[in-house]
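User: Design a sequence. Structure:
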C-alpha cells in the first residue's frame, strides 16, 4: 500500500532538504550583464552634450571679434560664428585614428580663454599652412566637450609646456549641428544595448512562480 505523499501544489520536504545546485556561470553572467549595462549607460550619458547640440538649429550666433569673447550664461554648447587671429603660443597639431585629415588647436591671439580647433585637409598640412581667421562651429566649455576632446589639456601641456586656463572654452570650427546627427544614433544604440542587458538581468534574477 502506497504511503500518502504531499498534497498537490505543496512543496516536497525531501526536495527542499537537498542542497542548492552550484551555478558559478550564473554569477558570471549576472556580473557581465550588470557591467555592460552600466558601461552603456555611462557612454550614453557622456553623449548628452553632443545630442543637445545636434538637435539645435537656426543660424549661428554672432560673436564678432573673439578677442572680446566673454562667456555668458548661454555660451555653452552653441553654434557660433566669430573672427580672430590664432596664436602660435601653445598651439599643437594632432590626428585621430582612421582619419587622413589632421587638426590644429590654438588659442585666440589676445584671449587664451578661448581655443579653436581647425581641421586641416590631408595634403595641406605643412609649415606654410595659414589658419583661417573666420570660424563657424560648436562653442563648448573645454571640460564639457566630451570624450573626443578629453585629452586636449594634457596634450597641450606635454607638447608645448603651456597650460589651458581653467574654465576655458573650445570652438570646434566646422562642427555644425547637422554634422553631429551621428550622436543621436549612437545614443539610441547605447540605450538599446543597456535596456537589453537590464532585461536579461531581470529575467535571470526574478523569482519563478509555481504554476
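Assistant: Done.
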Amino acid at each position: 500500500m502506497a504511503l500518502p505523499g504531499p498534497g498537490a501544489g505543496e512543496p516536497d520536504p525531501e526536495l527542499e532538504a537537498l542542497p542548492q545546485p552550484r551555478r558559478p556561470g550564473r554569477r558570471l553572467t549576472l556580473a557581465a550583464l550588470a557591467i555592460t549595462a552600466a558601461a552603456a549607460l555611462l557612454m550614453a550619458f557622456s553623449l548628452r552634450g553632443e545630442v543637445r547640440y545636434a538637435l539645435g538649429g537656426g543660424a549661428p550666433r554672432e560673436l564678432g571679434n573673439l578677442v572680446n569673447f566673454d562667456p555668458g550664461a548661454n555660451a555653452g554648447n552653441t553654434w557660433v560664428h566669430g573672427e580672430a587671429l590664432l596664436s602660435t603660443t601653445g598651439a599643437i597639431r594632432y590626428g585621430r585614428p582612421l582619419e587622413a585629415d589632421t587638426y590644429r588647436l590654438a588659442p585666440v591671439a589676445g584671449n587664451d580663454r578661448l581655443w579653436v580647433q581647425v581641421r586641416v585637409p590631408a595634403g595641406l598640412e605643412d609649415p606654410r599652412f595659414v589658419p583661417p581667421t573666420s570660424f563657424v562651429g560648436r562653442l563648448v566649455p573645454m571640460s564639457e566637450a566630451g570624450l573626443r576632446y578629453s585629452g586636449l589639456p594634457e596634450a597641450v601641456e606635454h607638447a608645448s609646456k603651456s597650460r589651458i586656463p581653467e574654465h576655458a572654452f573650445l570652438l570646434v570650427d566646422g562642427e555644425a549641428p547637422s554634422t553631429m546627427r551621428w550622436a543621436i544614433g549612437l545614443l539610441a544604440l547605447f540605450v538599446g544595448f543597456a535596456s537589453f542587458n537590464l532585461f536579461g538581468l531581470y529575467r535571470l534574477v526574478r523569482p519563478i512562480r509555481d504554476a
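The longest helix spans residues 182-205. The helical segments are 13-17, 24-46, 48-54, 152-160, 182-205.
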